[in-house]
Write a structure and sequence with these properties.
This protein is mostly helical. The chain is 74% helix and 0% strand. It has helices spanning 14-41, 47-74, 84-105. It is elongated and about 50 Å long.
Length: 106
């Protein structure tokens, strides 16, 4: 086998580990979104809480879309690298969900 990362590269189990990591991250994101939604909807039902709950749901759906697309890409024999746009979208969704979760708790 070649030492450099040429055409003879054997990815081994790395794509499978990455796919599993995306699934774990999606599960953690889902739990965070559900807990934030539950907390937001148990409040007084003010328009701010309803809008916050809707934003949490939209961000969660966006993250699920990014993660699902990446998991499908990793199923290929030679998966492509993560596009910068997808990475930015995943980071933005994660940060936004964290901010909304903290805002709902406080």
């Amino acid at each position: 086998m070649k030492a450099s990362g040429g055409a003879g590269r054997d990815a081994g189990l790395q794509p499978e580990r990455t796919r599993l990591a995306w699934r774990r991250t999606t599960l953690a994101c889902s739990v965070t979104a559900v807990l934030a939604l539950r907390t937001a909807l148990r409040g007084s039902g003010s328009p701010v809480e309803v809008v916050g709950a809707a934003l949490i749901a939209l961000i969660w759906l966006a993250f699920l879309g990014v993660a699902h697309r990446r998991v499908r890409q990793l199923a290929a024999a030679r998966p492509p690298g993560l596009a910068p746009r997808s990475a930015l979208a995943a980071v933005a969704c994660t940060v936004a969900l964290s901010v909304f979760a903290v805002a709902v708790i406080l």
